[in-house]
Amino acid sequence: MIRSGVCITEFMGKTVAWLDVDGKMQQLSVTDDDSGLVGNIYVGKVKNIVKNLGACFVEFGDMTGFLPMSETYGTEKIHEGDCIAVQVVKDASRNKDASLTMKLCLTGKYCIMEYSDPIVSISRKITGEMRNTLKDRLKGISGYSVIIRTSCADPDSIEELIKEIGDKETLMDDILSRSKTRTAGTLLYESEPEYERFILGLNEPFERLITDIPSVCDRLGAYGALLYTDEYPLSKLYSLETKIGELLSRQIWLKSGGSLIIQYTEAMTVIDVNTAKSASKKDKQEYIFDINAEAAAEIARQLRLRNISGIIIVDFINMTGKEYIKRLIEVMKKEIRKDKNCEFVDITKLGLAEIIRKKTTKPVYESFDRNDFKAL
Questions:
Q1: Domain spans of the chain?
Q2: pLDDT at 41
Q3: Is 367 left (phi over 0), alpha (psi -120 to 50) or beta?
Q4: What is the CATH number of domain 4-32+195-237?
Q5: C-alpha closest to that of 91 among 368, 309, 313
Q6: Is 36-192 in CATH node 3.50.50.60?
């Protein structure tokens, strides 16, 4: 039985990719027609330096990006008018320029290569003899920083990893070489499609990759992609309309009978945890903790699926015992660790949990119109 798999299909004019584990959607990616510039590398021209912000504004093509000085690399000092190689790490939004970095990054199936000081880092999930083997085999393997991904835990993948590192280094050398001779605005490297970046960014391996889009299947052949050819649509097979519709709803029901209410504001996202209507025969505080713990796991999942970013405030059901609060914090931290873009901050004196999440792509509610879905 397939426990985990990635599905990619067309839905409402968009390319949708998702990770399904035990029949439950865990991560989601939506590619719009204007899928953005994230990952692209350009020759940029420094427009002006703002010392008070510790950053500079860089023109690339017909756009302007924001480059923090902490994201510069490979040059002693940047001056206005300089041409530099920059990579887009965040698309421009309604009121913000695109975010840029000079620490260029190339992501592969087995490794991530970054234009920074040469060092090899290995995923913590790779342990034991395999970790020692990788340390020995990869000493001084590249002039750039290399991060070994969890997908390289299989000993049979070492030779493929070494080849991938060589290919990425050749590509990085070429990008940096061309950046010195090309004019400002030149596109030096076009990133993978969003659905491929989604696969590369998954925190856990998957057993199967299936799509009903021939071009996607061809591109993802190295990942063992299978082409779905049945007449019954893949989107209907996985009830995609229902699942995305649920992600646009304000209310999420929990198995315990409790619920979550998610409200978006300009400043933050607020999530309210409500208890079940019926009373429990169990100890009241233990009963409330069980609902809060279930809510914590579902909140972490909803943040990933909906791609909610910024400040998130969670109003859990009030618990009086300090031991219960401590246990809830442990549960929350454990669930949030599954999301590399998310961080648990603290629980305030008023019992409000504070979470922050980095923005990667736009939230689901900006990709789909809620009115197109039934009974939300």
A1: 4-32+195-237, 36-192, 240-365
A2: 96
A3: alpha
A4: 3.30.420
A5: 309
A6: no
SS (H, E, C) 43-87: EEEEEEEEHHHCEEEEEECCEEEEEEHHHCCCCCCCCCCCEEEEE
Whole-structure pTM value: 0.76
Two structure tokens written together for 367: 């990709």
Select 240-365's CATH number: 3.30.450, 1.25.40, 3.40.630, 3.40.50.
3.40.630
CA distance 215 to 254: 39
DSSP-assigned beta bridge partners for residue 50: 55
Unique residue bearing structure tokens 């996607």: 216
- Residue 301 tokens read as 């999942």
Closest by alpha carbon to 20, among 233, 305, 361? 305
Residue-wise pLDDT tens digits, 49-99:
998 999 999 999 888 999 999 999 876 688 999 999 999 998 887 778 889
DSSP annotation string for 152-214: G-SGGGHHHHHHHHHHHHHHHHHHHHHHTTSPTT-EEEPPPPHHHHHHHT-SS--SEEEES-H
With 50 as the cut, is the pLDDT of residue 375 above it? no
pLDDT tens, position by position, 220-246: 998 889 999 999 999 999 999 999 999
pLDDT digits (tens, 9 = 90+) for 146-193: 999 887 877 778 999 999 999 999 999 999 999 999 999 999 999 888
Return the SS3 of 368: coil
